[in-house]
UniProtKB/TrEMBL annotation:
Ranges where the GmrSD restriction endonucleases N-terminal domain occurs: 26-332
Regions annotated as coiled coil: 138-165
The protein's name: DUF262 domain-containing protein
Keywords, comma-separated and alphabetical: Coiled coil
Keyword Cell inner membrane: no
InterPro entries, A to Z: GmrSD_N
Any Pfam family hit: GmrSD_N
Superkingdom as given in the UniProt entry: Bacteria
């Protein structure tokens, strides 16, 4: 690692060599890369900084780390810390505006003995805000003013003395970009002030610059509106023209930040009966001390890769918007370093991409898990990297750079925008597929019972609920590749987001799974739906998914491929069914899905046939129900099953899949904890004449699977161990037959 050093420093020391070794402070010279977001600190963050600093009794105050890369030209690129650095840069600018106005007022009220010292402060302040041109002008006017004041002091003629003092004011105002101070027409003066300051800033560069030219212009546009009214009669007042409905949001951000800084200063440094000009001097000294006392841990490297490594070490946390920005930054950086486009084109392209990223893809409304999914799916689409795991964001960036970006011959603006649009298209896919981030299982059940959505919609929601995140990219990649192949191949234009949205809506709502443009997507979705239900865990579905992912991603297309695996799925599924126990949320969800789909079939001997019309449940909430109650009614224990073997527990049988049926919530509430014979009346009302209910009745009536007892003079049937075992075996055969059926097949054979 090319680490140049790390030291605790303030803003003025930021760009000193490492180690400093007694050298004088170097002028601030920092660059904010193209790919970094604009300044974003809000009132709370700024006011908290002021409050914490003053609570610390204005002593040395540490505010975190800054990571920078030293360029060959002596400038420093900020990798981490630009929000804090910009906040202090703006505070230093506020100090400059204070000093500029304060010195003007000192000249007007002829407090000449203070002017020399404050002109020196103005020089030093400007040195870390502007390029050398302004600083040289201030140095020159400093010398000229001292000469003029010395002449005025020696001048015996009062009229000549006054002329020399007037000349001092005029020369100062011209050099510092100030209009003649006349507040009789306040609006006119403020307009003149803004015009002069705008011209003054336009001809100079800041020592904190953005690579994105438009951001520099927007910062200047905001700072030209900063006017501090100072007089010997009133306390300082900040006047800032802010119109949220007119100003650009980034311009407004800088303006509001200056307002919050001014307010933070005034709130924490109140006037204790000082004269206004003395109070102004106190405020200037307070800002100066604050800038000197606020410290960073400054880490400087010689290359960007090391800087990012350090950034991630210093900011170890789970996925946040800042982490997502690192991925965005990687794409922006690659574009800036590999495009042949002009600077103004780059600027517009990045602004467009950034707006899409912040407002359309990862907005304030984006849930944390949603952001994780989008980031993971995009990384899988770009790289097909089998080693990537959900939530391993650092790995995504490394893989995208190595396995995608480094394979490209060029990377122009349209390439960047289309790559950003891949993230956008994934976000749209999740939205149109109805993804939930809470109550996922309920969403799956609603979808399975409604019959109004495509198999692709159903599968993605099932995989999401089962947390099979590593399986979903097989479908997501297929969707993206199929759409791009159909509509975007051969074009040099940006992807059409509106057309893609319509495409995804059609895919989600193709409930018969018959539309030609979606055929391959539905086929792979159905295959993964089956594997998710057949497999006992994620291993087999993920293995199958990987085979599809590597054949359909940004670098490859193979819609004809069909995956095969040498695994005894029937044996694995049998093991899952026979070991199934009530309790696991994932196991319950899979059982519900199987029961719901089995319910949609008729049974004729050894044949399952899909019904022409779906079973309509009373409510969307379909639940797994113990047919024989889990908890017997103690007042009627003789009606309930008990195992014959004293070494076996009742739960072994009643919590196995052989004792379960699906039931809508309304009927389940009515059923409460009935024994099996009594429960059958409720099942009859829920689905009169359904073969699954009839079959349970037949088992209960068979002496092989149940026994008859007499209770209160009436015969009563109670299930035996054989009942639960037989039904478990039959359910396995039915479920397996169901899962062997093709997507468009309506029949399947039941095999023991």
């Amino acid at each position: 690692m090319e680490l140049k050093g790390a030291e605790i420093r303030n803003l003025m020391e930021l760009c000193n060599p490492m180690p400093k070794n007694g050298t004088e402070n170097r002028k601030l010279n920092v660059l904010i890369p193209y790919y970094q977001r604009p300044y974003k600190w809000e009132e709370t963050q700024i006011k908290n900084l002021f409050a914490d600093y003053f609570k610390n009794e204005q002593k040395e105050y540490f505010v975190g780390s800054v990571v920078m890369v030293e360029n060959h030209d002596g400038g420093f690129e900020i990798i981490d810390g630009q929000q804090r650095i910009t906040t202090l840069f703006l505070l230093n600018y506020l100090k400059f505006i204070f000093l500029r106005a304060y010195i003007e007022e000192l000249i007007i009220v002829k407090k000449v003995y203070k002017i020399d010292g404050y002109l020196s402060k103005l020089e030093n302040t400007a040195d870390n805000i502007f390029d050398e041109k302004i600083v040289d002008e201030i140095r020159k006017i400093h010398i000229e003013i001292n000469d003029l004041l010395e002449k005025a002091d020696e001048e015996k003629n009062e009229e000549q003395k006054e002329k020399l003092q007037d000349q001092v004011l005029k020369e100062y105002q011209i050099t510092l970009g100030l209009p003649e101070k006349n507040l009789s027409d306040r609006e006119k003066y403020l307009n003149q002030y803004r015009g002069k300051l705008s011209y003054y800033l336009a001809k100079n560069e800041f020592t904190l610059k953005y690579r994105r030219i438009s951001y520099n212009e927007k910062m200047k546009e905001a700072l030209q509106d900063c006017y501090i009214e100072i007089s010997n009669a009133k306390n300082p007042k900040l006047v800032m023209k802010c119109k949220e409905d007119v100003d650009d949001p980034i311009v407004m951000q800088y303006k509001k930040s200056l307002i919050y800084e001014f307010e933070g200063l005034m709130e924490n440094c109140r006037n204790e009966e000082e004269a206004p000009l003395n109070y102004t001097a106190t405020l200037i000294e307070t800002i100066e001390k604050m800038i000197n006392m606020i410290r960073f841990c400054v880490v400087i490297t010689g290359n960007e890769a090391d800087a990012y490594t350090l950034f991630e070490v210093l900011n170890d946390r789970s996925l946040t918007i800042e982490d997502l920005d690192l991925t965005k930054n990687l794409l922006f950086k690659w574009y800036c370093n590999h495009t042949s486009e002009e600077e103004n084109v780059k600027d517009k392209t990045i602004e467009k991409a950034d707006q899409m990223w912040v407002e359309d893809i990862f907005s304030a409304m984006t849930r944390k898990e949603e952001a994780k999914l989008i980031s993971f799916f995009a990384a899988e689409y770009f790289t097909a990297d089998e080693s990537q795991k959900f939530n391993d964001t650092a790995r995504y960036r490394e893989s995208i750079e190595k396995n995608y970006l480094q394979t490209r011959r060029s990377y122009e603006g349209v390439d960047l925008l289309n790559d950003i649009k891949i993230y956008y298209m994934i976000a749209i896919t999740l939205k149109e597929m109805g993804f939930r981030y809470q109550k996922k299982a309920e969403k799956v059940i609603e979808t399975e019972t409604s019959g109004q959505k495509s198999i692709t919609y159903r599968t993605l929601n099932l995989l999401n609920a089962l947390k099979l995140y590593g399986v979903m990219p097989a479908i997501i990649n297929f969707i993206l590749k199929r759409y791009i192949t159909l509509y975007e191949v051969g074009t040099t234009k940006e992807y059409d987001i509106s057309r893609f949205t319509d495409y995804i809506k059609g895919l989600a709502n193709d409930k018969e799974n018959v539309m030609d443009e979606y055929k391959e997507i539905h086929d792979i979705s159905y295959e993964l739906w089956r594997y998710a239900l057949l497999a006992k865990d994620s291993e087999i579905p993920r293995t199958i998914a990987k085979k599809y992912i590597v054949r359909n991603y940004v670098g490859n297309t193979d819609f004809e491929f069909k995956a095969n695996i040498d695994v005894d799925l029937k044996g694995e599924f049998r093991e899952w069914v026979y070991d199934w126990k009530y309790g696991s949320a994932d196991a319950q969800l899979k059982a519900k899905v199987l029961f719901i789909n089995l319910f949609e079939n008729s049974k004729e001997h050894h044949l399952l046939r899909k019904l022409p019309a779906r079973i309509q449940f009373n409510t969307k909430a379909v639940q797994l129900d113990h047919m024989e109650a889990e908890e017997p009614d103690t007042a009627a224990k003789e009606k309930y099953f008990e195992p014959c073997n004293p070494h076996e527990t009742r739960e072994m049988y009643v919590n196995s899949i052989g004792n379960f049926m699906i039931m809508d919530r309304d009927n389940n509430t009515k059923k409460t904890n009935f024994p099996l014979q009594d429960a059958m009346q409720v099942y009859d009302k829920m689905a009169p004449g359904h073969w699954m209910i009839t079959e349970v009745k037949e088992l209960l009536a068979d002496d092989k699977f149940s026994k008859e007892v007499v209770i209160a003079g009436e015969p009563y049937r109670i299930p035996k161990e054989e009942f639960f075992n037989e039904r478990k075996a039959r359910l396995f055969s039915y479920f397996y037959a169901l899962l062997q059926r093709g997507l468009h097949e309506s029949e399947s054979n039941i095999v023991d």
